[in-house]
Amino acid sequence: MIGFVTPMIQAALWIVLFLFADRLSNPLVFVSAIMFAISFSSPVANFGFDTICEKLDRRVMVAGTGMANMSAYICAMLATQIIGFLLDWNADGHAYTWSNFQVAWLGLGAVWLAGMIGLAVCLLLQRRKNIAFRR
């Protein structure tokens, strides 16, 4: 559950930053809080890999680790491309402004939201499988 809640907290902090950065009295302190939250919770990813290691055969484990790493890389590249597209589209050939970046970062939010929905679906399917297995 912590692996699901922690990204939600981080996303909420990022949303506050991008929506209200111009109204924050000291945005650097807020960014520092975000960086602390990210660095504090980064080891959570290791719990996911440990869970996979415990549940899978070693022959399958290598493929699972590769899939997890590659999917994260592909999502990062997809988010970067969407951000770039939205930034260029919103600026319409003019110099970039803060509002252009605020709109462009919605691309990351879309990729992140898709990933969180996928995570929720996988958790639901795994719970159903575990309940059926126990019967």
From TrEMBL:
Keywords tagged on the record: Membrane, Transmembrane, Transmembrane helix
UniProt key word Transmembrane helix: yes
Annotated TM spans: 5-21, 27-49, 70-91, 103-125
Domain of life the protein comes from: Bacteria
Name recorded for this polypeptide: Hypothetical membrane protein
